[in-house]
Amino acid sequence: MNGRLARDTERTAWAADRTTLAEPISMPGIEGPWSKVRQSVSWTGHAVVHAYWQEWLPAALADPELRNLLGSRDWQRFSGLSDPEARSRFAASRLMVRYAAGAALHVPPDSVELAYKPGGRPYLRGCDQVDVSLSHTKDLMVVGLNRRGRIGVDTELADRRIQYASVERQLCTPAERELLAELPEPARERELLRIWTLKEAYTKALGQGMRLGFNQFGFGSDGTSLLTPDGRQASRGEWSFGTFWLPDRYLVSVACQDSGAESDGDTSVDTMLDEGFLGEVVDLLSRSENKGQ
Amino acid sequence: MNTGTTAVADATTDATADVTTDVAERVAHLERRFGDPRDPGNPLGFRALLAAEERQELLAEAEGLLTDEGFGAELVPAALGGRLTRADTLARVLRPVFRRDVALGFGHGITSLFAASAVWVAGSPEQQRSLARLLCGGGRATIVHHSLAHGSGLLRGEVGAERTADGFSLTGRKDMVINAHRAEALVVYARNLPSTPGAGSHSVLLVDPDRLPPGRMEALPRKLTTGMRGCHFGGYAFHDCAVGPEALVGSYGEGVRLALRTFQLNRSLIPAAVIASVDTVLRTAVAAALAGRPGGPEGRHRPLLAGVFADLLAADAMATTALRALHLVPDGAHLAAAEVKYLVPDLLRDDLEELATVLGASGYHGGDGDGDRGALSKLLRDLPAAGLGHAGTAACQAVVIPQLPLLARRSWFRAAEPPDAVFRPGADLPELDLAALGLAGGDDLLAAGLAATATRIRDSAVPGDAQATLKGYADAFVRELWALHDRCRELEVGDRAALSNPEMCALADRHALISAAGAVLATWERLATGPAGDACGAHGGVGVPGAGGAGGAGGFLADPSWAVLALQRLGGRLGLALPAPPTGCVDRVLHEVVERFRAGSAYDLYAAPLAEGGGT
User: Fold this and answer.
1) Residue A284: inside a domain
2) Measured between CB atoms, which of A173, A274, A289 is closest to B394?
3) Which of A254, B121, B254, B499 has its CB 3.0 to 4.6 Å from that of B250, i.e. a possible disulfide?
C-alpha cells in the first residue's frame, strides 16, 4: 500500500500549516458534545463541526417535525430529491446545521430558521451574529460557524485524484502554477486538492460558489494567506485559512473572516436585544396601550 | 459654494424647485471640486485616498476641501446658522464624499452630527449656539456612546455619571471613540450612578474637553482598526472628573430616549450615504464587464449588474422614504429608520460580494493608476467598522420586535396610507424637527404603502409584461404581510421574555424585507404617475437617455422594470417562489446601467452628474 504510506508521509509535511483556525470538532450525533462548539465559538470566534450523515440519519428520520424543521424551501428541495442517499444526507445535514447553530446561539435547534440568500448562501434568518456554511461529500458533513464575519467550509475525499494538466489553468493563478510545477507528481496533486478546496471555501464564504473565477485569486505555499494572481497579498489579515486532514479519508478546508469589529463574544439570542432600548420601547408601548384602553 | 447656489435659487420662484435645485447644484459643485476620482493624477482621487489609507490617515487635501466648503454647516440646523433643513437632501450631499471614501465621510465627518443631534433636540439655547458655532467653524464633536448589547469594540465600555452638589462626576472609560484626539466637544451618554428607580438609566452630557479639571480626563492611545483605517479611534478614561450642571443635555435620565429619537436620523442617513460607496464598486464592475465587449455586458454579468443596480434603487427607495418620513410622519418614522439600518447594509454587503465575481482579481488592488480597483476590498473592510454589523442589527431589532404584536393588532391592513409625499423622492418637505420624532408606537407606514399600492396596481389596467409581473410580485408580498400579521397576532403584547428568541428575530427579518418591498412599490408608483420632485436627474441637467424627464412619465424610473427586479430579489430573500422576471426587465435595467456609466451619473434615484461625466 504505497499510496497509503505516501499519504501519511505527506500528511506530516502538511501538518506544518500555520493556520490559526480551530481544529474541526467531531459530532457523532444530536447529543453533542455541543459544549465544545459553544466554547470554540466563544473563545476563537468560530467552530467547525463534522460528522457522518449515517450517524445523524436516525435522528433526522425520527423527527416528526422534519417538514417544519426543514422549512418550505428546504422541504421542496428535499422532496425533489429522488436518490434515497441524497435525501438522507440532505435531511441529516440540515438537522446538523440547526443543532450547531442552536448551540452557538444558545437556543433550541428547532427555533432557528435556516434561510438562503439569492446566491444560495445559507444564513440564520434574523440572527446575523453567527454566519454559517455547510459542505458535504460522500459520507461526511461539515458545518462552519463564525461570529466575527463570513465563513466557508469545503470537504473532499483526501485521496481524490485530479488531473493537474486538465484543470491547472482554470483552478490556479500563475503564481500557484509556478509553485506547483516544482513539486513531484503525488505532492502536486495533493497540493492542488488543498488549493481547490480552499478556493471553494473562500468563494462559499463570499456566497458566490463557482461564480468567482478560481484563477482570479490564489493562496501562498502554506495555504493560509490570500494572494492576487501575481502573488501579492490580497487581504489585510481579515481572512484566515486552513486545511485539516481528518483521521479518516477526508480533508476539510476553511475560510474564516475576522471583520475586526471584535464583539464581546456573546452570541446568545436572549441577550441580543439591547436592554436599554428594548425596555424603553416596551414601556412606551405599554403606556400607550393602557391609554388606549 | 453659496454664490453658485444663490444664482440658481434666484432663477426660480417655486419653493420646491428652490430646495431641490439648490441641493443638486451643491452635489454637482462638490463633484467638480473633488474631480474625477479615477484620474490617477487627481490629488483628491482614489489613488490618493488609498495611499492615505495606507498611511492610516484621512487624506489631508480632501479634509481641506471639505473644510473649505463649510461641510460642518451641513450638519447644523438652519435655525442655528447652518444649512441643515432636510434629512433627504443631507444624504445626497454626503454621497459625493461617501462614494470616494467611507472613512472620510465618517472621520471628517458625519459623526459630528450624531454627537450633536441630541443637543439639537434637547440642548439649552447656549449649548446649541456654542455647538453650532463649533461645527460651522470647521470643528468637530464626537459621541461617547453608552454600552450596547452585543456591542463591538466600537461600542464597548461606558462612562458613569454621579450627581454631585456642583453637577456631575464622570468615571469610566470608552476605548474606541472616533476623532477623540481632535474633538472639541464630547457628547457623553453616561449611565446614571447610582441608578435611580423611575428615572431613565442614562443621561446626556455636553462636555468641553479643554475645560475639564486637569488630570481627570485621560486621552487613551489610538487603536488601529481593520476597517476605516484612516479614521482615528482614540478613547477617554474619566477619573472622578467634575463637570458643571450646565453640561446636562435635556433632563436627567433622558439619555436612552434621546438616543432612540436621534438615532432615527443616523439609521436612515448612513445607509443612504453608503449606497454611493457601492455605486463606486458597481461602476468599476461595469467598466470590467464592458471591457472588450462593444455590445455590452454578456452572459451572467447581465442579470448580475442589473440586479445590483435594482438593489441600489431599492435601498435608496427605502432609505429616502425613511428620511422623508422623519419630516412627514414623525410619530412612525422610527420603525422605517430601524428597518433601513437593519436591511440596507446587509443588502449592500451581498451586492459587493456579487460584484466581486465580476471584478475577479482586479477587485483586490489599487495602485498602478487603477486606484478604484481597491475599492471593493476596502469597502468590505470599512462597512463593518462603520457600525453596520451585528450590534447595529441588534439595536434595531430591539426597536422593531416589541412592536410587532401591536402592529398586527392595530396597524397592518388597518392604518391609512401615509402622506403621498413620503414616497416622492425630491418633493417638498417641511423643515426637519428631530424633537417631534416619536419613539415607539404609531403606524407602519411602509406596510401601509405596500398594501395600498398593491391594491391600486391590482385594479389598474395592465400594459405589458413587466407590470403584470409586478402585480403578481406585489400580491405575493401582501400575502407575506398577512402571514406575518397572523403569526404576530398570536403573540402577547409586552411579554418581554417571549421577545428575545430566534423566531422573533426571524419575524423581524421578514418584516424588514416586506417593508423594503413597500418602499419600492410605493416609490415606483409615484414616479410612474404623479408630478415628481427632482428624482432621476430632472434637475441634474445631464443627458441621461431614458433616465431623465420631470414628472417621471416615460423615464427609466417610471418603467416598472427596476421595481420588478428589486422585488424579485427581495422575494428571494424571503424564500418566496416568485416566477422569474421577464428578460425585457433585465435588458431595460442593464441598458440604464450602461447609459449611466457612460454619462457619468449616479446609481441612485437622483442620477446626479458625477465628476467623471465629462461635461460637468
Assistant:
1) no
2) A274
3) B254
Using the beta-carbon criterion (under 8 Å), do A274 and B148 form an inter-chain contact?
A: yes
Q: Is the pLDDT of residue B446 over 80?
A: yes
Interface probe, candidates B390, B439, B443, chain A, greatest A C-beta count within 10 A = B390
Q: What share of chain A is helix, strand, coil (3-state, %, to 5)?
A: 45, 20, 35
- CATH superfamily for B143-252 is Butyryl-CoA Dehydrogenase, subunit A, domain 2 (2.40.110.10)
Question: Kind and range of the H or E element at B445?
Answer: helix B445-459
Of A112, A234, A275, the CB nearest to B364: A234
CATH of domain B2-139: 1.10.540
Q: What is the CATH number of the domain that holds A22?
A: 3.90.470.20
Q: With the C-alpha atoms ordered B288, B289, B293, B294, is the resulting torsion angle positive or negative?
A: negative
Which residues pair with residue B227 across a beta bridge? Answer: none
Q: How many CB pairs under 8 A join A and B?
A: 211
Whether A273 sits inside 8 A of B149 (CB atoms) is yes
Q: By C-alpha distance, which of B597, B86, B75, B558 is closest to B320?
A: B86
Across the interface, whether the CB atoms of B506 and A113 are under 8 A apart is answered yes
Contacts of B573 in chain A (CB under 8 A): 115, 117-118
pTM: predicted TM-score of the whole model, two decimal places = 0.90
Contact B152 A126 (CB under 8 A): no
Residue B469: exposed, middle, or buried by beta-carbon count in 10 A (0-12, 13-18, 19+)?
buried
Q: How many domains does chain A have?
A: 1
Q: Does residue A290 sit within a domain?
A: no
pLDDT bracket for residue A194 (50, 70, 90) = very high
Residue A186's Cα: distance from chain center in Å? Answer: 27
What are the residue boundaries of the structural domains of chain B, listed by start?
2-139, 143-252, 257-613
Domain presence at residue A232: yes
